[in-house]
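Give me the 3D structure for Histidinol dehydrogenase.
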Amino acid sequence: MKLVRTTGRGKAEAQRVLLALEGRQESSAESVAPVVRKIIGQVRKSGDRALRRLVAQLDGVSPQSQLQIMPDEMQLAWNETPEAVRGALQTAAKNIRAFAERQLPGKWSLAPIPGLSTGQLVRPIDAVGCYVPSGRHPLPSSLLMTVIPAQVAGVERIVVASPNPARETLAAAHLLGVDCFYQMGGAQAIAVLAYGTETIARVDKIVGPGNLYVTTAKRLVAFDCAIDMLAGPTEIVVTSDKGNAAYIAADLVAQAEHDPHALAVLVTTQPSLAAEVIHEVKTRAKSNPVAKESLHTRGFVFLTGSLDEARTITNRLAPEHLTVDSQADLSWVRNAGSVFVGDYSTQPMGDYISGPNHTLPTGGLARVRGGLSVMDFIKLITVQSYNRSALKSLGPSAIAIAEAEGLDGHADAIRSRSIGRGKTSSSRRSAGA
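Predicted structure for Histidinol dehydrogenase (433 residues):
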């Protein structure tokens, strides 16, 4: 990890590094965009025929294999999964579901004046596609994190797409009762979910993380099919002055092992803690090649001159995962996907079992949104109902605004109901002509 001092001679270098990290959302998407556009175009033009060719070529699925994984195959995967893993999946699912249920907003109504009722309805999206990566590691946890909030929201049709899904991923699908699971991945899966084929109907929204090809495809289809967010490599920031160096280093290594391009940062005012963490990270990453590469290229320790500066840097980074020392620190946190408090709140617990979603904003997107939640699967529909008395009470104010905007038709529509037999704007214009 690289030590970056924000004071003295290191100040200019620190600002350069910070500016580069703040712009990290600009990925290398353009490098793969031509290939991704071609794949999307082929699926849109040739449907199932193109999909079959692409999954054989890119996902290694035999042309004779059935793309849809049937419930009995998921049942078999569940039966063959070790009991300890089944129990862990059940615990995780229970916690994720309870958290999503608590997040789910309800309908409500309000009466600003007698005779007027306003409120909201909560309705689920009709169909969603949940993308579950299957690259370096099987990710049954990502299936739980994407499917469960959709189920809690009441989504009627949930389609899971995953290339070469592992037994544990299929077991998780069985646990949740998933009945629409396709073994397909990459840009071709995103194209199918967004536009459909002869045998697979399109969805209304695509959620879930993926590699550069998946993320680029989501970006390209986003005007035709809603998406959750553009997820990049995982990120961890630990902002601490009194944390345990071994615990901090363990968390940095844990997130760094996801991806050679993962971002791992410690922000502290304490030189001794900075030195201890750097030493611990080097020791712990020695036998973890992915983490070692990531920490070498994208690992930083910011040694700041004050607590205020440390907090400012943290919020500028807007990290996916943030660890802080105490509950009191939550008061200054403005930008973070998910916050972990104290020595024992290790970030992998959030990846698997705590309940809050692990599909989180990266690349600084935490400045404007939080992680995936039940809110991503619902629509809030507003409702308003007037009787004549209420319209007559508020109508004149609305008419005044409509006329100020030069929208006489708006004013006339209100006046015709609330003012009774009075002349409309159009009749006044005719009389004066």
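The chain has 17 helices and 15 strands. Let me know if you want a second pass.
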